Amino acid sequence: MSAPAHPDTSIKANRKLLRALAGEAVWPPPIWLMRQAGRYLPEYREVRATAGGFLNLCYNPALATEVTLQPIRRYGFDAAILFSDILVVPDALGQQVRFLEGEGPCLDPITDDAGLGQLNLAATGEKFGRVYETVARLRQDLPAEVALIGFCGAPWTVATYMVAGRGSSDQAAARMFAYRDREAFTRLIDIVVETSIEYLDGQVKAGADALQIFDSWAGNLPDGEFQAWVVAPTVRIVSELKRRHPDVPIIGFPRGAGLNAEDYVLATKVDGLGCDTAMPLGQMRALAEFAGVTVQGNLDPLLLVSGGQALEDRIAETLEALRDVPAIFNLGHGIVPQTPPEHVARLVELVRGGT
Ligand SMILES: Cc1c2[nH]c(c1CCC(=O)O)Cc1[nH]c(c(CCC(=O)O)c1C)Cc1[nH]c(c(CCC(=O)O)c1C)Cc1[nH]c(c(C)c1CCC(=O)O)C2
User: Fold this and answer.
1) 231: which DSSP letter?
2) What CATH number labels 14-353?
3) ipTM, 2 dp
4) Nearest Cα to Cα of residue 153 among 217, 106, 86
5) Which residues does residue 347 pair with via DSSP β-bridges, in sequence order?
6) Residue 253: CB within 6 Å of ligand 1?
7) How do residues 146-194 score in pLDDT, each as one tens digit?
8) How does 282-294 read in b/e, with b if 16+ C-beta sit within 10 Å?
9) Which residue's CA is minimally distant from atom 43 of ligand 1?
């Protein structure tokens, strides 16, 4: 007698985001939004005002858990993303990060070997430990069907902040460093690669069931530099995480990669590709069909601010383009503070309607 067929009753099988990342064309597609916890929500601003600084919020497990859950309660997204920041990595390494009101992040720039000497992987435990505690609390508090995404910045993007010292689009400083002193810049990237591997490993052990690597400044690099600083370090992170945790899917977000996006997918073997606003929908579909990657994106965050018929039309057009391929509905970049919360509610309603 043959064994009865077992329906897949594992808890994870109910998480639509994980099914999509495993290659299933889930319909309607799962939805979450980059920066879904943030200043556009009044309940976030309230908690943020009591936290005493943005990084204090990131390092406070009770408050970070609360703000991660806020958009889940309000909209019922298919995934929660850990509330933290990509600059926790340099901060934990000892390059102190400050967030100045209205100005964004500020770091003492690392421009040479001496600056590199101050970074200390052994010192990251205390700060990373607080993030892991947030992850563990979240997995306890989240509804079973909601996936929990852990994340880090990609080495190139994190390095651009470490070298420029600020959060503008100034990746020129890192590019110059890389051209002038390739050896020292390689050491910087190596440090961030090693640290990111341990950091993501810790998040998975604490309960994250998918990971995203944010490479916000991957655009504008000449192809050799894209290969050296975006692709190669990401390959190292993805392959080591896959060795340690073969079942945890990884989404790469090489913003602005343009014509390099396909190479990025094939070389890094990410399960999901975060697509920016400039990626044509036809190209997203082609990547899902022919490169075997789950595509995620790519609604313009400013369209979510303006709303109205243009928003509704674009949502319909996006759904049409993603029908029958493995996809995750998201924005092409983070939600902006001016976004009316009711526009997000409408977006979720339309996507869940699947038309
Ligand atoms: C480049 C980058 C950073 N941080 C991040 C990136 C990559 C994605 C991207 O390109 O947007 C990633 C990030 N930052 C934040 C998250 C939390 C999870 C989420 O809801 O997506 C994530 C995943 C919270 C945050 N990180 C930050 C805020 C706003 C800070 C506040 O509340 O005052 C939030 C909610 C601050 C931050 N952090 C960073 C900048 C440039 C800024 C200032 C810009 C701004 O003020 O919006 C660095």
Assistant:
1) I
2) 3.20.20.210
3) 0.94
4) 86
5) none
6) no
7) 999 999 999 999 999 999 998 665 789 999 999 999 999 999 999 999 9
8) ebbbebbeeeebb
9) 104
